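hiii so um. not sure if this is the right channel but i have a protein structure encoded as tokens and i wanna go backwards to a sequence. like what aa goes where. can anyone help
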């Protein structure tokens, strides 16, 4: 067998109306994928498009959020420059979590075992105090456990344990995360 992309069909996947997606892409290009610094407007627009956003959230410039209606962000969350939240499915980021610059949260992939290269989607959950380091990648069906840390440039394709540090590709547990007062 060979891959046959001419037979690819993800018509089952309905992320929202074409008009809603188009409007979001335009708003996103102006307010999120640019150096637009004002955070209150960003929070307002995300909520307007269906995101659930807590208090004290910081969203830096050049952030790409695919579908805000698939996004839940808790209180006092930091999202750094050039983060890409490719939330084809639900992304939940709990209180006091940090997504560092250039990180990718990827809810979608393709089934490389099928000739039709079918779309695969799944949620991502960053629990309270979790930290996704710079340029790290978190894939679908992953839970970054409470206060666990993902090292810079790591690729996480399996859920983590609380208060542990992970690094590498694929990410492996390297030591305990001890937080001091």
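sure thing!! here u go:
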């Amino acid at each position: 067998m060979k891959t046959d992309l001419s037979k690819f069909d993800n018509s089952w996947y309905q992320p929202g109306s074409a008009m809603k997606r188009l409007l979001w892409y335009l708003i996103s290009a102006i307010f999120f994928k640019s150096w637009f610094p004002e955070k209150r407007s960003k929070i307002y627009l995300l909520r307007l498009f269906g995101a659930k956003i807590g208090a004290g959230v910081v969203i830096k410039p050049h952030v790409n959020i695919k579908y805000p209606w698939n996004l839940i962000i808790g209180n006092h969350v930091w999202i750094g420059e050039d983060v890409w939240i490719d939330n084809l499915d639900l992304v939940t980021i709990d209180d006091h979590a940090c997504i560092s610059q250039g990180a990718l949260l990827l809810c979608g992939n393709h089934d490389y075992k099928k000739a039709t290269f079918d779309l695969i989607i799944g949620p991502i959950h960053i629990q309270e105090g979790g930290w996704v380091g710079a340029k790290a990648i978190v894939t679908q069906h992953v839970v970054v456990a409470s206060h666990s840390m993902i090292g810079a440039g790591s690729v996480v394709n399996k859920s983590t344990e609380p208060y542990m540090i992970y690094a590498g590709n694929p990410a492996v547990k390297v030591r305990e995360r001890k937080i001091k007062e």
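oh and The longest strand covers residues 171-176.
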